[in-house]
Every structure is written in C-alpha cells, then in structure tokens.
Amino acid sequence: MDQLSAMRAFVRVVQTGSFSAAGRDMHTTQTTISKKVAALENHIGVKLLTRSSRDHALTQAGAEYYETCVNLLGELDEAEARARSDVALPRGVLRITAPVAFGRLLLAPIISEFFSLYPDIQVDLLLSDKHVDLISDGIDVAIRARQLEDSTSSPGTCLTTTCWYWLHLTISSNSASPLPPMIYSNITASPTPG
C-alpha cells in the first residue's frame, strides 16, 4: 500500500464529501478511492469513516487522523516546493579564479549580466596570475589563459598587432550551487597593444 496516496485519498474524501467526487478530483475511480481508504484503515487498525449506502461520517479517530494528515501533507507539499525551487533557482556562492588581465578585461564587464540572470548567486572573483589549489581554496571555476606564440618567431613575441590567447576553463566538483548547463565556446581575446 502507498500510504501517502491513501492519506491523500482519505483527505480528499473528507474535503469533497464523497468518494466519487474525490475520485474525480484525483483523476481515478470511486472504487480505487474506496479501496485506498479501506487499505489505510486496515493498515492503521482504526475505522476512519462510518459508511452507509449514501453517506459517510468521520469517526472520532478519523477526525483526529484527518487533521494530522492535512498538516503532514501540507508540510510535505511545502518541502517538495522548496526543493524544486532550489533546483530551479540556483543560489549560493560561486568562487571563480582567473588571471588579473583576463578578469579585468573580460569577466568584470559580464558579471553584472550574470547577476541579473542569477540574483541569488554571490560571485567571489579571485584575480591572480598564480595557480591556486582548487580544492583547498574552494574554487568552483578556474580560468587560465596564456599567450600563443608564433612558432616561426622567437619565443614570447607576436608578429602581428593581435596576439591570440589559449583559454583553459576548469569547473571543479566543489561547486555547492549547480548551475544549469551552459555552452562554452572557444574564447579568444587580443591584448591591449602596447
């Protein structure tokens, strides 16, 4: 027996005033509702309803059980709604680390857009050119970039006014607030000429 389903059937019978109305509300038959209530009574060992061919009434035990069921089912429904909203709306702290220049040039301008999409997420942005320990520092997302060198020139030089960067994005398993899947594409940036 599915006790929660039987409790819901019992509550609907009391609220609607009949087994057939409860069946309509729950998209099932009067017979199914009657069997669920009988199974519930058998399970707890107490008559909840006195039945006649045309009517039913709560017993004293049934009235007390009804109040308890309404409270329990209400709390369960609220808990399920809260759990669903936690998944639907991510919240918490998202710790991101990135190189200083990359963070200032590319991340800082888009953070405000991120806040408008996810207002319940606090972003902790650590800009550093040093590599950090993702686990011990509790980092959720690490972005590392380096300048790609032209293999035909001497190391560390760019032949054109635009130097391309290689970007590495790491998403740590530390993340406490899972975000909806996002699509990441190749990102290129050109440094400020100088």
TrEMBL record:
Keyword Nucleus: no
Keywords noted in UniProt: DNA-binding, Transcription, Transcription regulation
GO MF assignments: DNA binding; DNA-binding transcription factor activity
InterPro entries: LysR-type_TF_proteobact-type (IPR058163), LysR_HTH_N (IPR000847), LysR_subst-bd (IPR005119), WH-like_DNA-bd_sf (IPR036388), WH_DNA-bd_sf (IPR036390)
Domain HTH lysR-type stretches: 1-59
PROSITE patterns xrefs: HTH_LYSR (PS50931)
Pfam families: HTH_1, LysR_substrate
Stated family: Belongs to the LysR transcriptional regulatory family.
PANTHER family, alphabetized: HTH-TYPE TRANSCRIPTIONAL REGULATOR, TRANSCRIPTIONAL REGULATOR
Protein name from the UniProt record: Transcriptional regulator LysR family
